[in-house]
Amino acid sequence: MQKTSAIVAWLFLFVAVTGCSNSTSGPASATAEPLKAAFSFGLVRGDIPTSTMVSLFKPFASAATVELVGTPTGLFAPASGTLPKIAPRGVQFDVEITFTPPISGDTFQNGSIRLRVTSLDGRFVDTVDVALTAETEFPTINLATASVSFGPTALGEAVTRIIEIRNPNQATPITITGATVPGGDFVVVSTFPASIQPRSSVGIPVRYTPSSTGPSSASLVFSNSLGTPLNTLLSGSGIPSEVLIDLGFVPVDAGGLTPWLEFTVEPEAASIHFEIFGDDPSADFFLIGLEGPGGYVYENDTLTGPYTWLKNFPLAFEALFLQLPNSDDPAVQLVPGGGTYRLRLFELSPLVSGFDIRVIVEQRNSGRISFGHLPLNIFLSDGLSIDVSDAPTDPKLQEALQTVDMLFKQVGLRVGSVSYFKLNDPAFDDIGSFAELDALQELSSAAPEARLNMFMVNTISIDGGGILGVAGAVPGIKRNGTIFSGVVTAYDDVTGPFVGSTAAHEGGHYLGLFHTTGFDDFGFIVAVNLILDTPICFLNEIDFECLTIGNDNLLWPFELGFVDLDLTAGQGSVLLNHPLVEPGDPPGGPLTRLGKQALSPGPGTALPLRVRRPWCANCAGLVGSSRWPKGEK
Fold first, then answer.
1. pLDDT of residue 621 exceeding 50
2. Segment 71-124, tens digit of pLDDT
3. Which of 130, 272, 304, 626 has a CA-to-CA distance to 62 between 20 and 30 Å?
4. For the chain, what is the mean pLDDT?
5. Spatial CA neighbour of 109 closest among 117, 97, 127
6. Is a pLDDT exceeding 80 seen at residue 478?
7. CATH number of the domain residue 225 falls in
8. Strand ranges (DSSP E) for 168-300?
């Protein structure tokens, strides 16, 4: 029942006391006509009774009894238990009146009640007729749409849509009491009851996580206080999160050119990755053609396209790994709507007879990846004395992994499930050469799943030492057992958070990020992501400002002792597009995009500021090495 809190007073045209026909020695004779009064409830709710206090003017000098006379007309009546009542001496008395709305019929209702007022001393008796009116609101409720499509959604991906429920009424609030939906693919992400005030609406989130490929549908039913169920049809379609296109072995012609290699992607394609292996480790070869649907040019045979792939860095290496998009630059995004892409390579020296090429296409709802989680394979060197069984609870190691998660989650990437492996050969305690580095990363074949392989070793002494980490490639590949398959982090003489920040830096390389500062000592720019929202500086002998521009970014090339480092949204878009990133929530809970969060691991965590050791070996003078584009810290 609705009960008004305000007292609404109406003045009635009563005759003055001196005009009443009465006497001081006995009761007055009844007046010829009852006194008249009128009161309107206005617009009232149609789902429950409404009560209000009706105030009647009483210019009597003594208390009186107020009682109901006869039967009220219409849907109005004194509230239960309120009459008869004693009206105290004063200028007015209040009567609580209840209006019970009709189930159907006219919205406008009228009726009346008759009240008798008798003074306690018997000096007067008066009768009052109160005319009553009310306008009933017959409440309704509706959905903004009768059906909701989630569209094609990758397996493991969770897509949320908001279903809007509207309350168009002017006076009647409505409560959504619950929601039921059959089938496990659709889940209502809300708590009930949920109240909707008049002339407003509420959005109920519903999440779709396909469990299999192909279409699925369900009928979602909302129950509510009106007793009128609301039905909305939910539909979606599960698609693979990843499509592998194996182009096989592609020979080059006499001029060193491959034919144009074509493949088609669906509209839900979010990123495309190329893993290209030549059949000679000393070959020099180039990407001289990359085009999208409609003939859109990413790279051409003059190497002047917008796609950045180290095109000005003519070094010999046996493999080329490409990621599209690898920047937030609009010029290098996928062409909306899917279609046919094509690729062409050129062999500079007549060493390679052909290339083994495979293409990995990541698919997501609406062709965009906003969140994801990164599963890890952790390989522990023999000298660390951490057994596989102890690894999940080892304080330093877990602090390192928590730091990786902290740094990545600011762009919507979380650490996923982790598997641990032990390296029993002490030869890998210190990595002193590229040959040892190659052999180490080939050991990733022991892991049954292709994940980001993180090798934790005691020290790295390549190129004279002082190196904190190495990434196998920029970007890395989604396969185990190659000399490019993973990142390596030095574990000794630093704390857990410091190990974690190094591992995250190298992981950032592997997922497609170059440094924010590059070197041009040789007359050309090397290894810098041209990401629009990320500070960049090209370093040479006199560019001292590059020692401070962007030095709080995770991909700045030198370590300054910070563990609280930034990633920009543009960098995050590159990380999330890598095929090692999987859709769906990680083991730690729902995915959220967070801002930079300070890590407070306690005193002694970070090295002194301005230590400025290189994160990785490519910052340590390996320009010109045949092992570029390895990312090293």
1. no
2. 999 999 999 999 999 988 877 788 999 999 998 888 999 999 999 988 888 888
3. 130
4. 83
5. 97
6. yes
7. 2.60.40.10
8. 174-180, 186-188, 194-196, 200-208, 214-224, 230-239, 242-251, 261-265, 269-278, 285-292, 296-299
Backbone angles phi, psi at 354, to 5 degrees: 175, -175
Domain with residue 322: its CATH number is 2.60.120.380
Residue 22 pLDDT > 70: no
- Say how far apart CA 119 and CA 391 lie, in whole Å: 91
| pTM recorded for the entire structure | 0.80
Instruction: Verify that 165 and 277 share a domain, yes or no.
Output: no
Where would I find the H helices in 420-495? 434-442
159 and 229 fall within a common domain: yes
Task: Look at 138 and 521; give whichever has higher pLDDT.
Answer: 138
Shared domain check, 553 and 417: yes
Structural domain for 459, as ranges: 372-632
Last residue of a domain, one of 205, 239, 273: 239
**Banded pLDDT at 598 (limits 50, 70, 90):** very low
* 157 and 234 part of one domain: yes
How many domains are contained in the chain? 4
Give CA separation, 376 vs 334, 416, 448, 468, 565, in Å.
28, 7, 12, 19, 21
Total number of residues shown for the chain: 633
343 and 249, same structural domain?
Answer: yes
Q: Are residues 259 and 401 in the same domain?
A: no
pLDDT tens-digit series, residues 396-448: 999 999 999 999 999 999 999 999 999 999 999 999 998 999 999 999 999 99
Both tokens of residue 538?
Answer: 């090209």
Residue at a domain's end among 178, 211, 239: 239
Cα separation values, 607 from 220, 487, 494, 563, Å: 56, 22, 8, 10
Residue keyed to tokens 């000098």: 61
Q: Give ∠ CA 107-109-115 in degrees, rounded to 5.
A: 160
- Decide: 269 and 361 in contact? Cβ < 8 Å: yes
CA dist 584 and 210 (Å) reads 11
